[in-house]
Amino acid sequence: MGKKVTIRDIARMAGVSVTTVSQVLNGKGKRFSKTTREKIMKLRDQYQYVPDFHARSLIMKGSINTIGVLVPNVSESFFGTFVEGVQQVARQEKLIPLIFSANREPKLEQEYLEQMVERSIDGLIIASARMTTEMINQALSNRDIPYILFDRNYDQQGARVLTDDYHGGQLAAQHLLALGHTKMLFLGVKNITENFKQRMAGFQETINAQEINFDEDHNLLKADLSKDGGYQMARPVIESGATAVFTANDEVAIGLMRGLREQGVRVPEDISVIGYDDIILDEYVYPQLTTIHQPIFKLGVGATEILLNKINHPDAEPEQVEHFPVKLIARQSTGKCQQN
Amino acid sequence: MGKKVTIRDIARMAGVSVTTVSQVLNGKGKRFSKTTREKIMKLRDQYQYVPDFHARSLIMKGSINTIGVLVPNVSESFFGTFVEGVQQVARQEKLIPLIFSANREPKLEQEYLEQMVERSIDGLIIASARMTTEMINQALSNRDIPYILFDRNYDQQGARVLTDDYHGGQLAAQHLLALGHTKMLFLGVKNITENFKQRMAGFQETINAQEINFDEDHNLLKADLSKDGGYQMARPVIESGATAVFTANDEVAIGLMRGLREQGVRVPEDISVIGYDDIILDEYVYPQLTTIHQPIFKLGVGATEILLNKINHPDAEPEQVEHFPVKLIARQSTGKCQQN
DNA sequence: ATGAAAGCGCTAACAG
DNA sequence: CTGTTAGCGCTTTCAT
C-alpha cells in the first residue's frame, strides 16, 4: 500500500547502486554475486517493485511494443471480432494493443490518433472509413509511424488488408439472380466509402449483365450504417416494390428484417434479404441471415501480422497488401422469387 | 517525415531556451514577448512538434489522466455499451480510456492489469467476475491506485456500481408467475458469481413464496455465458419440461431461443424465455426478448464518475456505492402458460 | 563484481 | 522578459 517504490529505494535498501539493481532485474546480472542478486530479488518481491513504464520507454524507445487499434465502434460485432484477431497475434508477440473506439466521430478519431502519437506507439491499425490518408498523416504529424489500413478506401496508399468487395457484390447478385429475382435493391449507406462502392459495383454490373435494369436512381437506397439505420428503411424498401435487397452490411440487414417484420412483410417469402460480413449474430436472428462472408477474425490477425512486419522491417518493399477471400453463405433470409 | 522533433530542436531553431518553449507551448507564456511566442508557435506547426507523452508523465505524475478499463469481452454488446458510457464521461473530463478486453482469461486479465500499473494509470474500472479483490490488489502490487468494481461480487470491498440483482430476479419471477407458469427454470452459468447468485435467489425465493417448488436440483441448469452457451442448452431445457426459463443474461437467452426454434419449440407458445440486461439486440431478435433492464450505458457513466471522484479525493469517505435501478421490459418472448 | 555519470524529453522553481 | 538548474525513474557506457 502506498507510494511508489523506485529502483533507488531498492538500491538503498540493498546497499548497492541503482545500476546493480537495474542490471539484476533485467536479467543482465550474471556478473553480480549470487548474494547480491538474491537480496535484490527478495527486496523486489517484498516491496512489489514494478518498473515505471514511462521512464523506461523514455530511454528504450521502440523496444517496448505497443500498438494502437482505432476502430469506429468496438461494440459492433464486426469490429469486436476484428479486435479479437488483433489481440491474438498481439499476445503471441508480446505486444500490448491499445484499443480506441472513436464512435465514427472524426474529431474523436483525430484526438485518439494524436494521443497515440504522443504515447510513441510503435504501430497503428486504423479502421476508419472516414479518414483520408492526408488526415491520418496529418494527425500522425507526418511521423513515420507504421500503420495499416482496414475496411476503407482502396485508392489510398499504405499497407493494408483487403477483401474483394467487388466480388462480394457479384456473389450477392448471382445468388439473387439464381433465385429468380429481378427487382433488386442495394441498401447502401449515406457516407459511401470505397468498400461499399465496390460492393455495389459488383452487384450492379452483374445484374446489368443479365439485361436487368439496375440504376442508382431506382435501385439504391441509403441507410445509416447500423441496425437502427436498417430498421428505419423498412418502409422505403417495401414501397420500392423490390423482391430482394442487398444491404451494406449485416447490421443494416438485421435492422431491416426487424422493420419488415413489424410491417407484416415476410422474409424471405415477400422480400429476400442478403447482408454482408457474416457476423456471429447472423445465425441467431430469425430468419438466419444469408450473407457474404468475410473472415473477420483472420483480417484482424492478418492486419496485425503485416503491421508487425512493417515495424520490424521499416525499409522493406513498398506496400504490402494482403487479400482475403469472401464467400456466399446461404441461409434462410433469401428464397425464390415468389412474384410473377 | 522522419525523426522526432524535440523541444530542444525547437528551442535551438528559435534561438531561445527550452524553458521558453515549454512555457509558451503550455500556455503559460504570457510573460514572453509576442514575437517570441509567435516564432515558437510557427516553428511548432512547421515541424509538427508533439510533446513526448512519456517524458511528460514522468514529471507531471497524476496530472495527465489515463484510466484503464478492463472488461471480459468488448465484443459483447453489454460491455460494448458499458464502455461507451465510460467513454462519454472520459471525453468530457479529458481522460483517455485505455480499453483492455481480456477474453475472460484470468491470466490475460492479470497481464493487462500489470501493464496498466506500469503505465502509471490514474484509475481503473474492472469488470471481471473472476478476479477476487486479493488477486486485484496483488496485480496492482498493492499500490493505491483507485479502482472501481463492476458487474461482480457483492461481498468484495471497494467502490462500485451495483444494480439490484436480487430484485431483478424477483421481477422475473413475478412476471412469469403472473402469466401462470409453475414449471420454471433458471438457466444459470457454470462459474457462478455473486450477481448471478442474487438473480437466482430473488427468482427462487419469490417462486417459493407462492408455494411452488423451485430447488436447485430440478430447476437449475448451467450454461456457458454466451450465445452459444444458451444454444447448447436448448435440448436440456426442453427435456426439463419447463414452460418458462429465466436466463443468466440476454446473450444466453438469445442462444437458447435459437436452439429452441431449431428443435421446433415455439417461443413463447411452448416455452417463455426471459433474459437479463436489455442489450440492444433484444429488439432485433424474433421474438423480441422480454428481459430485466439494466441501465448499461449509465452504469458506465456512473462507474467513471465514481472513479473520478476517487481519483480527485483519494482520502474521501470509505466506500462509495451507487445503486442503479432495474426494471422489467415485457416483450414477446414471454406469454401465458398454455399448459395445465 | 560493482558503481559513477550521463542522458532520454520534458517541466518547474528560481534567478536574473 | 528569459535562461539556469535540477530532476522525474530508468538504462547504459565506462571506469574501477
From TrEMBL, chains A, B:
Gene3D superfamilies: 3.40.50.2300, lambda repressor-like DNA-binding domains (1.10.260.40)
Superkingdom, natural source: Bacteria
Organism: Limosilactobacillus panis DSM 6035
InterPro entries recorded: HTH_LacI, LacI/GalR-like_sensor, Lambda_DNA-bd_dom_sf, Peripla_BP_I
The protein's name in its UniProt record: Ribose operon repressor
NCBIfam families according to UniProt: lactose_RbsR
A Pfam family: LacI
Protein keywords: DNA-binding, Repressor, Transcription, Transcription regulation
HTH lacI-type domain sequence ranges: 5-60
GO molecular function, one term: DNA-binding transcription factor activity
